[in-house]
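Team,

Forwarding the record for the chain on the shared tracking sheet. I've put the sequence and predicted structure together so nobody has to dig through attachments.
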Amino acid sequence: MRFDYAAPEKNLFLVDGKFAWFYVPADHTVTKVPAKDSSDWRTPLALLAGEMKVSRVCKKIGTAATERPQSPENDLLYCALRGAAESPGHDANSSANLQATNRGDAVFFEVVRDTGELARILVRESGGIEIEFRFTHWQFNPPVQESLFHFSPPLGVAIVNGELPVQVTDVKQ
């Protein structure tokens, strides 16, 4: 999978099957993370790569109550994330509670009503961070050069290991 970004600055996000690479030419750095460990929401990596089912990310999907689709021909779905904290007495199956949870950390999928094609993904994180992906002109299995899915850092580019440190549990001796 490959994403070439033009804005807010030029960069590249590439998954070659083993690693996820995030290259920022202006910074002369590339971050390298094992693809299986990447949980980077800058891209809906696992979903778009077909390596993960929506049911593994979302414990419940419903119609978004507090957001509207960008196009009136589309539907906007809300994904209640697995592992998200719930308040005591919270009923995840209640539509009122699902609508109330459309705040804070959230993922929204905008889908074209007539075709089912994905038009947009909006990822909202705590701290006011929003990441949005818009999709148009879907093409399935277009002819593409294999070399576009292999990353070789240019000379002078620093490779940053993006793996998180292994958590050490409290061991008593």
